[in-house]
Amino acid sequence: MSPPAQPRKFFVDRSLGRVAVPKLLREAGWDLITLAEHYGVPEDETVEDTRWIEDSAKLGWVVLMKDKRIRYRQAEIDAVIGHQARCFVITRGDLTSAAYAERFVANQQAIFAASDTPGPFMYAVHIDRLERLYPPRG
Predict the structure, then answer these.
(1) Is the pTM for the entire model greater than 0.70?
(2) How many CB atoms lie within 10 A of CB 91?
(3) Side-chain half-sphere CA neighbours of 28 within 13 A
(4) Do residues 34 and 86 lie in contact, with contact meaning Cβ atoms separated by under 8 Å?
């Protein structure tokens, strides 16, 4: 008999904010913790991306973030790979909190299914689909 599945928990990076996006996702039934809740305020403002990627991966949390240049940041990509992180990123910086939350919720079924697979991976979250950024297809 296999052990019971761990509940899926999401880690919300500071790029998505401390309040509005987490509140909307929680209202939609997502189990999550924000960077500010995990590290505390004001420490949350100084935690390096590579550290929270590592910490969240070690805890089994799936990362939600916003970063239009993430695919070009080698240190962060190396952290995702090295720690087998599972990440979903919105690559636009010009949306409202409601629009960010809406993108995650609109893709909830695909995000939850992908979250149940091992990392490392990173998907861009679009309004109507996920796009795999890492590892590249083919």
Answers:
(1) yes
(2) 16
(3) 20
(4) no
Please report how many Cα atoms fall inside a 13 Å half-sphere around the Cα of residue 6, on the Cβ side: 10
- Cβ atoms of 124 and 131 closer than 8 Å: yes
122 within a domain of the structure (yes/no) = yes
Tokens describing residue 40: 């505390």
Give the tens place of pLDDT for each residue, 89-126.
999 999 999 999 999 999 999 999 999 999 999 999 99
Distance (Å, rounded) from C-alpha 16 to C-alpha 1? 39
Instruction: Return the ∠ at Cα 44 (arms to 107 and 21), rounded to 5°.
Output: 30
- Is residue 136 one of the residues assigned to a domain? no
Q: Is 87 among the domain residues?
A: yes
Domain count, the chain: 1
Reported as type and span, the H/E element at residue 10 is strand 10-12
The per-residue DSSP string of 58-105 comes to HTTPEEEEE-TTGGG-HHHHHHHHHTT-EEEEE--SS--HHHHHHHHH
Instruction: Please check whether residue 95 lies inside any domain of the structure.
Output: yes
- What is the domain extent for residue 114? 10-130
